[in-house]
Fold this sequence. Notes:
This protein is an alpha+beta fold. It has helices at residues 2-34, 73-76, 100-115, 163-177, 180-203, 206-232, 234-256, 258-279, 281-307, 309-313; strands at 37-44, 56-59, 62-72, 90-97, 118-124, 131-137.
Amino acid sequence: MEEAKRYGRLGAFVVVSLCILTTGLVLLGGRRWFQPTFMFETYFDQSVAGLDVGAPVRFRGVPLGRVAAILTSAATYERSVPLEKRREYIVVRVEVNLSGQEAAQMRRDAETLASRGLRAQTQLAGITGQQYLALDFLDPKKYEALPFDWTPKYPYLPSAPSSAGETIAKAQSFLTSLNEADIRKVGQSLSVLLSDLDTKVREIPVAELATHVEAALSAANGTFSRVDRLLADPSLKQTVDNAAVISGRVRQMTDGGQLDRLVKDLNDVSVRLDALVGDNQYDVRATVEDLRTTAGNLRALSESVKRYPAGVLVGGPPEKIQLPGRSP
């Protein structure tokens, strides 16, 4: 009886342990096993060095899935094909994590998206040299699908050469297009260019330039000396301190609102002056006219003083004297 209880407790312990282990696996990533996925494959006729299994797959920079497998067409689809007729493509299979509805939608739209120019392209991730698979819409006429004679296991998405591969291919094509005559002509042009540069360098007046540079350095040295003396002058430090004090006072006035009140008072005074001038405009005009009349009288009095200085103190001008023997 005791032995049966002991086996029962052991069985219960094993069952509970398995339940806990299963729950932990689900929480730590096991849910991915039950998540719907969409698989597709693409083919490359060039090297995909740097692209590893597990590398990210992105659609215009948005994470979409991961690289599930990297194979060769010879080992996957061309085992029975003669060696000289094999395509020797690189088969890259991609796993996209989607919901069931999204996976079904992508399966239906895969062929349409490919006809509109959706292409898979390897790209470098920063400066590390590691590659990832990028999906984007390109010109379908420029990047046509690679020909093949087998039925893909998963929906097929055409590929496009990587940007780095295109650059290398263009450079190789350019070097191949160069013939011996072109290379000889380039060498002659470089020789002429080097000869001209040597002639121009010899024509440079090095001694004269050195004299000018020395004079400029001497002038700069004198300027720096004067600046040093100016900076060492105590009055400059005092001026800077005074400026700092004035700046502090202005800041205090601004922070305390005194400057705003001063501006408001000046504005009020300006308004009052405008009102005062407007109210007494006629009196001001009459006063101006009186001042003009007074100025005229003073001018006439000044002329009289110039002609009859004594008349200002005694009276009017002297009477005319009748000389004897002359009729009045």
